[in-house]
Amino acid sequence: MKKAITLVCISALLCTALCGCGSFKLIDIGLKGSAGNDRGSYSSGAAEITDTVKDIDISWASGLVDITYDSGSSIKLEESANEELSSDSCMVWSVEGTRLVIKFSRDNIINANGLRKTLVLTLPEALRADSITISCASADTKAASLSAKRLNISSSSGSIELGSVDSDDIELSSASGEISIAQTGKCEEAEFYSSSGRIYGTFDTVNGLDVETSSGKTEIIANVLDEADIDTSSADVSLTVKQSFRDIGVSTASGAVKLLLPEAQGFTAELDTASGDFESDLALLFKNGEYVYGNGSAELEVDTSSGNVTIGCAK
Prior knowledge:
The chain has 315 residues and is mainly β. The protein contains one helix and 27 strands. The chain has a six-stranded parallel beta barrel. The chain has a two-stranded antiparallel ribbon with strand order 1-9. A hairpin with a 2-residue loop joins strand 7 (92-96) and strand 8. The protein is elongated and about 70 Å long.
């Protein structure tokens, strides 16, 4: 839970700074260094970029990061705001080799008057980036579709809403914002971290799934799930696997656990609950301290203190 705890500290730092002064630079909260250190290398405002871009790095303070695709061959940057922008408050960008860097403003400053900006990043449909990295303070991130070999999005209090994600390696984290993702194709590794925000994800195929949350509810639906580790303190967990799985571990202190598993998939389950109830719609055989279903080939481990555990059949 180290990352979730760090995000809580980030959120507290932002609140303290905003209440305590008129404006401040974003320091050590995941946003990259100031463009002001090398002003000559950055351009400002809206742009259409025709350079070859393989990696995209975005630092955004407040408002919204909205990623879209079109049939063109260039990358387009547009921004809008809830107030008139100056040369110091408009976004800046730079292409460094094949890496596109986009920053909230020249010095990454949030002002206490409530500046909120929307970044619309339009990418070519043919582009599958090597990496997309987005670091936000209170900004939301939204994309109807997204394609990158590696995807890393972090936010303090903003939500993350992604549809039709094609990525080999996914890492999403938010302290209090909701995380929602729909993955397509095959994903090698997917990691989600949250303190109090809800986590919801649907997956075609994922080899490794890691979820850590404190009090935010977790709901995962997957067709094929090779290995999963879900760890939560006081939140409910709902996991549905429709076709197959190999190894699933769920740990929670006081949250309820609901598992809907494929009827044709045999498994051996080790269940440890202190005061919670256990129910199963599947015919389980209790043997040597474990529950066996079918050929017992897959592994299932559930550890909870006071939450109920339910096992059913996925539809």
